[in-house]
Amino acid sequence: MRKTALVSPGAPFASYCYAGASGASLAIFFACLFMGKAEGERTLWSRFATLALVNCLFCLSGAIENGIRDMSGLRSAIALNNAAGMLLAPAFLDFVYAYLRRSGRLVPLAVWVYSFFWAAAFLIFQDVLVLRDVAFASMAHHHFEYSWLYSVFLFGLFGIIGYALGILWLFGRMNRAWKAYMNAIYFSCVLWAFCGVYDTILAPLVRIAFPISWVGGVLVQIAFLRAVYARSQQAFRDQEKHRIMLQDLSAARQIQKNLITRQFPECAPVRISGMYKPMEAIGGDFYDVRKIDEGHISIFLSDVSGHGIASALITAMIKMSLDALPANLQRQPNEVLQYLNNALESRITGRFVTAIYGVLTLKSLEFHFSSAGHFPPALSRKAGGQEVIEHMIHGRVLGYFSELELETTTMRLEPGDSLLLSTDGICEERNPTGEMFGLSRLKRVFRSPDFRSLQDIFGEIESFRAGRAADDDMTALLVSVDPPDNAAHS
Fold it and tell me: I need a surface site. Which of 263, 275, 329, 479 has the fewest CB within 10 A?
């Protein structure tokens, strides 16, 4: 291979510029590795790092080829530059997809395969693409005559970049998250593409030996880095807001836990327990158990439609209303529910509350109660072979009607009996196939001779769900009467 003087007037300066652009791209690459910590930004930063690294290789090979005086070495350097240039296209498209949050990987994957094919062709089959030395004083790229396949290569390269610019234009304009940066980004991308077209197509025509691809390569990365950094900072701010919101929800959950009864009255032979599992951090289920006097205990359970913060606020309203309940109403279940309805009506627009309120007389073990559209209580009678009896009574939901038209009924508990009050979230839980837990399963667990506590029910539900997320808040109260031997011992 003969030696040829390959220095063109603009080559030394272009070589320095390409070297500087390569160093800038490498710096951007390392910066990207440490910037993608915000939730939802990791993919974006990794794609940008890939783009920066490929651009570094492209600029570095450009610096090398503009400083080489040996034709053989120049041929290899140009092959590397073409290969890196081809890989810039899928790296750029990948980044645009991530930046616009477009789903689907088929197009980017096909582009990567196509680009690797051409990169390999330039590195392995140089003689097929580069035909001979024409040695005129122009840029290093123009010391060779290329085959018609090179035109196919350029068409594919700029076609991919054009497609990326197209979707960037169409969807970027609609993306308010980075609208302020759109003009600078799009201008730099178009300039980048023009620089490539100039160096590969226009420069030989005008015979100006000064490559400018490095200009677009640096400008486009600066523009994107500015926009991505701003977007990442917004993500950091959103993440901080989310962290504060989670802290507030955690505090709200603790406050709501303090609203429900935590210490149940001791009133042998009756034992009362409760369990509450909100679907989210806070929920709309609520219960309240308190001693009215030495012979009576009030039991209240409610379920606000929906769940979350709004429902939790309504449970706080219910708690305050119960605390302000006049003493003369405490032993009148229907009057208590009507009182709560008056407090909630017109204040919980778009929602309603189901509730049950009852008074347990300790001496006679009679439970006198009313229901406002609530899930029916279930009584498990030991004397009946663990028979479970549902008690359905009429009553409208709270907060929706002025008059509830409530019924009141009384059930008598016997030693060994258990009374279960729950919200409908328990029966409506589903397994991974969509099947509901249902009332029949609840009855089966409740009437089982091995049944001991609410944990048995909740544990059965957890097994039934098999890892599936909860569909609703789950709450239950259990009123158990000790068997005669336990009662006598007490």
Answer: 263
Q: Could you give phi then psi for residue 368, rounded to 5 degrees?
A: -105, 115
* pTM of structure: 0.59
The full 3-state SS of the chain, as one line of letters, equals CCCCCCCCCCHHHHHHHHHHHHHHHHHHHHHHHCCCCCCCCHHHHHHHHHHHHHHHHHHHHHHHHCCCCCHHHHHHHHHHHHHHHHHHHHHHHHHHHHHHCCCCCHHHHHHHHHHHHHHHHHHHCHHHHEEEECCCCCCHHHHEEECHHHHHHHHHHHHHHHHHHHHHHHHHCCCHHHHHHHHHHHHHHHHHHHHHHHHHHHHHHHCCCCCCHHHHHHHHHHHHHHHHHHHHHHHHHHHHHHHHHHHHHHHHHHHHHHHCCCCCCCECCEEEEEEEECCCCCCCEEEEEEEEECCEEEEEEEEECCCCHHHHHHHHHHHHHHHCCCHHHCCCHHHHHHHHHHHHCCCCCCCCEEEEEEEEECCCCEEEEEEEECCCCEEEECCCCCEEEECCCCCCCECCCCCCCCCEEEEECCCCCEEEEECCCCCCCECCCCCECHHHHHHHHHHCCCCCCHHHHHHHHHHHHCCCCCCCCEEEEEEEECCHHHHHHC
Give the CA dihedral 184, 189, 193, 196, nearest 10 degrees. Answer: 90
* Domain extent listing, the chain: 11-242, 260-489
- Measured CA to CA, the distance from residue 222 to residue 101 in angstroms comes to 20
Domain 11-242 has CATH 1.20.120: no
CA distance 456 to 468: 19
What are the tens digits of pLDDT across the range 32-72? 777 655 556 677 778 878 888 888 887 777 777 766 666 66
Choice between 122 and 446, residue whose per-residue pLDDT is larger: 446
Q: Is there a shared CATH topology between the 11-242 domain and the 260-489 domain?
A: no
Q: What is the pLDDT of residues 208-232, one digit of tens each?
A: 666 676 777 777 777 777 776 776 6
Bridge partners, residue 409, by sequence: 369
